């Protein structure tokens, strides 16, 4: 899923490209077999702009992709366009991360970290807790327990 926003002369194309390249997308929509997208704009949104956005999105999809779109006119979005894209139907799991740009090598390679450091427990957990001292019940308390509470209250 990707969301893009655009204003100005090329607002529809800007919004479409922003939606396609959105960081919300887990992977690139290149080769997607199914795409659902929605264009929301003000009353000044024309069919030409909708067509431009649709072309930008369909170029990234598979040639045989099933593409469904919707358009909404929102009075509050005068001069603006928002496009939401949902893509599905990718060919393989390898495509999931093919164009992902957020992967980076760890600063310290895992193999360079000594095993003793990985498995070491924090010092606050190393010392065992102090033993719990048991209290011995008084004989008086044990006698009181044998008599139900409602009777003890009447006796006092």
Strand order of the largest sheet: 1-4-2-3
Distance between the amino and carboxyl termini: 74 Å
CATH level-two architecture of the domain at 2-97: 2-Layer Sandwich
H/E series, N to C? EHEHEEHHH
The 3D shape can be described as: elongated
Number of strands: 4
Total number of helical segments? 5
CATH superfamily of the domain at 2-97: Tubulin/FtsZ, C-terminal domain
Note the main sheet: 4 strands, mixed
Strand content: 15-25%
Helix content: 25-40%
Class by alpha and beta content: alpha+beta
Protein model, in words:
With 156 residues, this protein is α+β, with helices and mostly antiparallel strands. The protein has a domain at 2-97: 60s Ribosomal Protein L30, Chain: A (2-Layer Sandwich), CATH 3.30.1330.20. It contains 5 helices and 4 strands, in the order βαβαββααα. Strands 1-4-2-3 form a 4-stranded mixed sheet. Helix 2 (47-60) links the parallel strand 2 (34-41) and strand 3 (66-73). Helix 1 runs parallel beside helix 2.
Q: What's the topology here?
A:
Layout: E1 2-7, H1 11-20, E2 34-41, H2 47-60, E3 66-73, E4 80-88, H3 115-119, H4 139-146, H5 149-155
Parallel strand pairs: 2-3
Antiparallel strand pairs: 1-4, 2-4
Annotation keywords:
156 residues; alpha+beta; 60s Ribosomal Protein L30, Chain: A; 4-stranded mixed beta sheet; 5 helices; 28% helix
Write a brief structural summary.
The chain is 28% helix and 20% strand. It has five helices and four strands.
């Amino acid at each position: 899923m990707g969301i893009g926003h655009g204003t100005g002369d090329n607002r529809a194309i800007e919004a479409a490209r922003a939606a396609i390249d959105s960081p919300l997308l887990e992977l690139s929509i290149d080769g997607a077999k199914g795409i659902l997208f929605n264009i929301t704009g003000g009353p000044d949104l024309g069919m030409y702009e909708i067509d431009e956005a649709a072309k930008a999105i369909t170029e990234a999809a598979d040639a045989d992709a099933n593409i469904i779109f919707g358009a909404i006119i929102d009075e509050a979005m005068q001069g603006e366009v928002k496009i939401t894209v949902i893509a599905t139907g990718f060919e393989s799991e390898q495509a999931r991360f093919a164009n992902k740009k957020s992967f980076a090598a760890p600063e310290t390679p895992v193999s360079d970290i000594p095993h003793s450091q990985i498995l070491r427990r924090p010092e606050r957990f190393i010392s065992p807790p102090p033993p719990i001292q048991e209290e011995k019940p008084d004989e008086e308390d044990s006698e009181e327990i044998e008599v139900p509470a409602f009777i003890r209250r009447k006796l006092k």
